[in-house]
Amino acid sequence: MKLSSLTRTRGGRVLLVTVPTVAALAFTGTAVAQGVVQVSMSVSGQEFTISADKLEGTDFSQYAGVALETDKTKQHPVAIANIGHATLTNLCQSIKTPFGPSLLIHAGTKPGRPAEADGLQIGMDNLSGTARFENIRIGVDASTVVTAARGNVNDFAMDSTKVTIDNLHQVAYSTQAATFTLTDLELGINLAGEECP
Prior knowledge:
Elements: H1 19-25, H2 28-34, E1 48-68, E2 75-89, E3 91-96, E4 102-107, E5 115-134, E6 137-141, E7 156-176, E8 179-181, E9 186-190
């Protein structure tokens, strides 16, 4: 699922990643140099896009890390975001194929029937939207965040008991969850290569 860039706004959106993420990503170079805080899965190295009208989640944390490709020779700096339980309204995921068309997945498109995930972890390099955090803590030790998934001792992190993101758009290398319920799932190939908005 792909997220939009942390470094720009579009259509008047407020960046989700303001002070908290900028501060966290300032430490990404150190994490990559040390080869620590890896996403706990090998990645293909190809990014994908995720968008949703709204994401609502409980038990949120974020810290810097790296996503390693399968052969372990290439690594990608990422922001690792964890959410204990998330609901996503009008979810879209897209990935461009090497030969032009794209794979599009839609779920949670009907009123009152969002997609849901438990134990969600995303390794992303871009995210935008309008976000609200409740009980946020910025600058906490990554090994003490509120989520089950945690970073390394003494690494910079932020966490929150609740997060709401409107007009979510992100670019990511990996997504994993303990359970992921794609309500009213639709999957198809788009020959024109369209991606999520």
